[in-house]
């Protein structure tokens, strides 16, 4: 097999997995295309019965880790619609846009920066391949650092990357759309769909959705669906600080919908037009922002690994091009089926937002420090993650195809037990002899403690497979012996081990494994 066909084969592999996850998510009630009976709406999705539970459990884990575990972090639920000046002050009206370019032959529209980033990723992959080959060739004597800085081919690739990145940063910072187009032309980047290099100019498109407000047309004015939840927190900074008697440093956490008119192609719930963010803005004393920035980077990474997401699937990625409000910014990236992509942003936002709202509203948005007897505008360190991207991270990490003894196979969603949509399923062995009633009675005792499901259709083997596909950590079977010994068979999802246990012990066995608290108890 030639190098190229090997790569194609590998890429088809990851694309295949992604497709399988998408169809599994639909078949098992996690995620449906929005308004599907009308052929759907691009980049908008609905969460089904299992997706909703999973999403709620992720929110619960995040909210607990932020608000309940930290005495100095409190919650907020701000409205989606805000005074239009909010978005002028925040810079979104003038600068929240994507550089878009159309291919004249395929009529496909792309983000120019994404086309360039994909090109850079391909060169990076070539470097990694060279490094891996050399590591194999030199064995224990291999020094990766030296190789990367001395091997001519690798240095050539690196130079290409640095040049393209440098030009892109310059073009973006100067808002030079002609320069942006030139990078694409010079690099010979072709339309991924058609292979054509026949490009239009690059134009900036604002990502905010707008609508009109006002009961009579003369009063109407443009308002926006919020493109981020953060501004609801900034405009409520003083309300919360005063009513909660908060002392700096303190945080405000919020989970809510955000909307962006994204140009997307086949990215499922990774890039949506309507999505949910989980954000926390941490207000700190000016000058202390880097200390808190480093601390929150570490704490946010641990939030994922405590959940069992492997460290090697997570990495930090520093922004090459800082947003207008930031003095430091890094993303936590996760290895999705389509590669490493942003899951969360950690930004040191300076005092940009509070100052801008102060200027635009004429209201003083400062903090009076009793000890120092001085007022100042706090600096802000924010952690901002996409809930839908987290759902995708959990689903794609959990999706496992297993060959079993005897030649059969199963698809099992190895979702961490505290996040699993259904914690335990209850089965009567047969649909008669009083077994359904007993199974329902046992479930009735437990259903307020955790989410349960009752199922009596099909063979026990088929019922197990169905729960494996949903990610249910425990299945409990009631058989004829139960009527005599008050015991049931409990089967664990990942090991498929089965045990006979007294009914009276079920609550403790399942409860301990699925309780969100277990994620915090694991902490050293
Ligand atoms: P990207 O570079 O992928 O467009 P971003 O840097 O614009 O993301 P932020 O503005 O930092 O994203 O938003 C914080 C988080 O919100 C992101 O890390 C991501 O998880 C989530 N997010 C942003 N845009 C979307 C979207 N269109 N769909 C789903 N989640 C999103």
Summarize the structure.
The protein is of the alpha+beta class and 524 residues long.
Low-confidence stretches: 1-12
Q: Can you list the strand order of the major beta sheet?
A: 3-9-10-16-13-12-11
Bound molecules: adenosine-5'-triphosphate
Give the radius of gyration.
26 Å
Helix fraction, binned, reads: 40-55%
CATH homologous superfamily of the domain at 48-79 and 227-395 - what is it? Bira Bifunctional Protein, Domain 2
**What is the strand content?**
25-35%
By DSSP, the count of extended strands is 23
Distance between the termini: 49 Å
CATH top level of the domain at 48-79 and 227-395 is Alpha Beta
Instruction: Tally the helices.
Output: 18
User: Strand pairing plus helix content: what structural class?
Assistant: alpha+beta
What is the general shape? Answer: globular
Mean pLDDT: 92
Q: Write the CATH fold name of the domain at 48-79 and 227-395.
A: BirA Bifunctional Protein, domain 2
Secondary-structure arrangement, i.e. CATH architecture of the domain at 48-79 and 227-395: 2-Layer Sandwich
The major β-sheet equals: 7 strands, mixed
Tags for this entry?
BirA Bifunctional Protein, domain 2, five-stranded mixed beta sheet, 41% helix, alpha+beta, seven-stranded mixed beta sheet, binds adenosine-5'-triphosphate, 524 residues, globular
Describe it for me?
- The protein has 524 residues and is an alpha+beta fold.
- Among the domains are: 201 residues, BirA Bifunctional Protein, domain 2 (2-Layer Sandwich), CATH 3.30.930.10; 117 residues, Anticodon-binding domain (Rossmann fold, 3-Layer(aba) Sandwich), CATH 3.40.50.800.
- The protein has 18 helices and 23 strands.
- The strands form 7 sheets. It has a 7-stranded mixed β-sheet. The protein has a 5-stranded mixed β-sheet with strand order 20-19-21-22-23, with helices on both faces.
- A hairpin with a 2-residue loop joins strand 12 and strand 13.
- The site of adenosine-5'-triphosphate has 16 residues, from strand 10, strand 13, strand 16 and helix 13.
């Amino acid at each position: 097999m030639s190098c190229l066909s090997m790569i194609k084969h590998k890429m088809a592999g990851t694309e295949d997995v992604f497709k399988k996850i998408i169809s599994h998510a639909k078949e098992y009630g996690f995620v449906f295309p929005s308004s599907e009976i009308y052929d759907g709406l691009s980049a908008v999705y609905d969460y089904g019965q299992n997706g909703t539970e999973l999403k709620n459990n992720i929110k619960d884990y995040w909210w607990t880790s932020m608000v309940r575990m930290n005495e100095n972090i409190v919650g907020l639920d701000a409205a989606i619609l805000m005074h239009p000046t909010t978005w002028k002050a925040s810079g979104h009206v003038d600068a929240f846009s994507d550089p878009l370019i159309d291919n004249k032959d395929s009529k496909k529209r792309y983000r120019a920066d994404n086309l360039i980033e994909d090109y850079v990723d391909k060169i990076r992959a070539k470097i990694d391949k060279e490094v891996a080959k050399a590591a194999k060739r030199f064995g224990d004597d291999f020094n990766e650092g030296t190789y990367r800085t001395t091997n001519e081919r690798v240095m050539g690739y690196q130079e290409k990357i640095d040049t393209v990145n440098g030009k892109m940063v310059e073009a973006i910072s100067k808002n030079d759309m002609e320069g942006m187009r030139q990078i694409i032309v010079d690099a010979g980047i072709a339309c991924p769909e058609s292979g054509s290099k026949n490009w239009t100019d690059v134009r900036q498109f604002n990502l905010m959705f707008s609508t009109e407000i006002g009961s009579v047309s003369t009063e109407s004015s443009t308002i926006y669906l919020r493109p981020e939840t953060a501004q609801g927190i900034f405009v409520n900074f003083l309300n919360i600080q005063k009513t909660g008697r908060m002392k700096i440093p303190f945080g405000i956490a919020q989970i809510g919908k955000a909307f962006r008119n994204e140009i997307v192609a086949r990215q499922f719930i990774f890039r949506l037009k309507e999505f949910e963010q989980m954000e926390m803005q941490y207000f700190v004393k000016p000058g202390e922002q880097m200390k808190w920035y480093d601390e929150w980077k570490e704490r946010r990474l641990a939030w994922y690994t405590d959940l069992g997401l492997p460290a090697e699937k997570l990495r930090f990625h520093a922004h090459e091009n800082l947003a207008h409000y930031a003095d430091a910014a890094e993303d936590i990236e996760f290895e999705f089926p389509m590669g490493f992509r942003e899951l969360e942003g950690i930004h040191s936002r300076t005092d940009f937002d509070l100052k801008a709202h102060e200027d635009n509203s004429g209201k003083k948005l400062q903090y009076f420090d009793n000890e120092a007897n001085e007022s100042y505008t706090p600096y802000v360190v924010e952690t901002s993650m996409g809930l839908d991207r987290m759902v995708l991270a959990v689903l794609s990490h959990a999706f496992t195809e297993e060959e079993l003894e005897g030649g059969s196979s199963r698809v099992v969603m190895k979702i961490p037990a505290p996040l699993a949509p259904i914690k335990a399923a209850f089965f009567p062995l047969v649909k008669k002899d009083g077994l359904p009633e007993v199974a329902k009675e046992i479930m009735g005792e437990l259903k307020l403690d955790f989410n349960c499901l009752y199922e009596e259709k099909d063979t026990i083997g088929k019922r197990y497979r169905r729960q494996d596909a949903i990610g249910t950590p425990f299945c409990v079977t009631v058989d004829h012996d139960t009527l005599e010994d008050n015991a049931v068979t409990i089967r664990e999802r990942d090991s498929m081990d089965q045990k006979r246990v007294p009914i009276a012990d079920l609550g403790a066995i399942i409860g301990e494994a699925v309780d969100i608290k277990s994620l915090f108890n694991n902490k050293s």
